[in-house]
Specification:
The chain is of the alpha/beta class and about 325 residues long. It is about 25% helix and about 30% strand. The chain is globular, with a radius of gyration of 22 Å.
Length: about 325
């Protein structure tokens, strides 16, 4: 069986990455020895060492909840059903198309059976408002929307009805954390429940100022500070970053701007607060990097600063032709 061979300490992160990209063969169990792990794949993959290893087949269970639905939905209905979903702690959030709303209960029960989580919810609206929440409808299990999500050794408590959180940004948060150095002063302008601050402060001795306009988000961030053993310090602040920033008496070595729909409207604030040579981790929705880079250059140009692009990457697809993009920029006088 073709396998990706990785050191044991990289096994889980590699497994998650391969699964996210649909490259892992789910028919066989992962194998590990003293030093290495072996993850089954169907084809050779660039940048990975591929070896042939005998693996134990997985027990025959449904690979997705659409298999459970094969006797309840027609093939066309199953084809139209998005079989991916967000798992946050022990709750699951589904997206069910309009023409399958009359079968939402059947779909919810199938998802509960497949995922074995405590609760299944369905999206009822897009993310909206300044607090970045969406309407949800309970479908199956126990109607308890408070959960604890585990990510890179951190515990993140939240109420999915009251705050926004995306488990699909776990790899991005780890990447940013790994680029942070001890001693940095960091501002997270739109922190939510604190996944960036918590993951960073758990692994780095830093001082983080975390701001969000959603009172519930700050409540759960304070809970998460208590839940986790942190190397760094996090100071929380509830309010509009455009207003509360006026009271800051320090500048920052790094500013995280993960509000991809509106972050560009706060670039002037970020450029004013960044230390000379500091880094802005900037995010937006776009079909390319050019728009974001131009926005950074314009904001810096207004105050005689320059932009050095360190890195660009596509974090995840949001719609056909559009991405959640990340731009890492060093800002200099």
């Amino acid at each position: 069986m073709k396998c990706v061979k990785v050191p044991l300490k990289q096994l889980n992160d590699t497994r998650i990455k391969l699964m996210e990209n649909g490259l892992m063969n789910m028919e066989y169990k992962i194998k590990a020895d003293k030093d290495y792990g072996y993850i089954p794949v169907d084809d050779d993959i660039d940048d990975y060492e591929i070896v042939d290893i005998d693996l134990e087949p997985m027990k025959k269970v449904p690979h997705n909840f659409s298999e459970i639905l094969k006797d309840e939905l027609t093939p066309d209905e199953i084809e139209n059903l998005r079989t991916s979903f967000d798992t946050i702690g022990d709750v699951v959030i589904l997206e069910i198309p309009e023409d399958l709303q009359d079968k939402k209960q059947i779909i919810g029960d199938a998802a509960l059976k497949f995922t074995k989580r405590k609760a299944i919810y369905m999206k009822k609206s897009a993310i909206k408002g300044t607090t970045r929440v969406r309407d949800l409808e309970f479908l199956s299990g126990i109607d308890d929307s408070v959960t604890i999500h585990k990510e890179h050794g951190a515990r993140l408590k939240l109420d999915i009805r009251e705050v926004y959180f995306s488990p699909r940004l776990a790899t991005e948060r780890k990447r940013v954390m790994e680029s942070v150095k001890d001693g940095e002063k960091i501002l997270d302008m739109f922190c939510g429940i604190g996944p960036f601050p918590i993951v960073i402060a758990k692994n780095r001795n830093v001082d983080i100022t975390a701001v969000d306009i959603n009172e519930s988000a700050i409540y759960y961030l304070n809970e998460n500070i208590r839940l986790n053993k942190l190397k760094g310090n996090i100071q929380t602040c509830c309010g509009d970053i455009g207003k509360v920033s006026k009271s800051f008496k320090t500048k920052f070595d790094r500013i995280i701007m993960n509000l991809p729909g509106l972050a560009y409207t706060f670039l002037d604030v970020a450029v004013d607060l960044i230390e000379d040579g500091g880094i802005i981790n900037y995010y937006e929705f776009s079909d390319s990097y050019e728009q974001g880079i131009k926005r950074l250059e314009v904001a810096c140009g207004k105050v005689g600063k320059e932009v050095e692009i360190i890195n660009t990457r596509k974090v995840k697809s949001t719609s056909p032709g559009e991405w959640h993009v990340a731009i890492d920029a060093r800002i200099k006088k």
